[in-house]
Amino acid sequence: MKVAIVCFNDTFFDRVRLLKKYYLSKGYDVTVVSSDFSHRKKQRISSLDGADILIQTPPYYKNLSFRRLYSHHTFSRRAEKLMESLQPDVIHSMV
Fold first, then answer.
1. Which CATH class is domain 2-94?
2. C-alpha dihedral sign at 47, 60, 33, 85
3. Residues 39, 66 contacting (CB under 8 angstroms)
4. Alpha carbon of 9 to those of 25, 44, 69: distances in Å?
5. What φ, ψ does residue 42 adopt, rounded to 5°?
6. Chain-centre distance of CA 45, in angstroms?
7. What is the pLDDT of residue 35?
8. Which of 1, 5, 30, 85 is 20 to 30 A from 19, alpha carbon to alpha carbon?
């Protein structure tokens, strides 16, 4: 069984790593998808421990801003297209 864990925000990655470990222990094929922009540092990241795929998203610098909403919207559109191509049996979304 294929599982996709989708998490936009790097703040939740401790939970994502635990979920990945759980699904792997059950023998599932797990893919973790995240954004290439760090919410904590407000900068681009080239790798994130535990993430298999980083989706390119527009940067934002204020937590309450139109650019942040646009970044979330862009991520969700690109993640949806990626899920259509991966065809996972389970999508675990961290929102």
1. alpha beta
2. negative
3. no
4. 24, 12, 13
5. 55, 45
6. 13
7. 95
8. 85
